[in-house]
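User: Teach me something about this protein's shape.
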Amino acid sequence: MTSIGRPRKYMPIINQLDPHTLYTPAMIAQIAIDQSQPLTEAQRKQTYTRVRITLGRYSNTHDFPDEGDGMVTLKGQAPCPAWFGWRWQK
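Assistant: First, the predicted structure itself:
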């Protein structure tokens, strides 16, 4: 049985991740935005939020460790857990 849904939709982006680099859902969402067709500001915000939430749920449903594989600090945000690319690609 093949998985259906948004995480499957984002697999082309996830498959491009470096297996040995830490990524948060927000970082992957930004990669998706950067690779997408030109979007209006409203579309960018909606797409970014949709991808980030979907990947946050993906990390929970696939039993990623709560503490992450490491911590990443994004500009304007507190440090948050991140996981190696290989974990996203499993």
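Now, about its shape. The chain has one domain: 6-89. The mean pLDDT is 89. If you'd like, I can walk through any region in more detail.
User: That's plenty for now, thanks!
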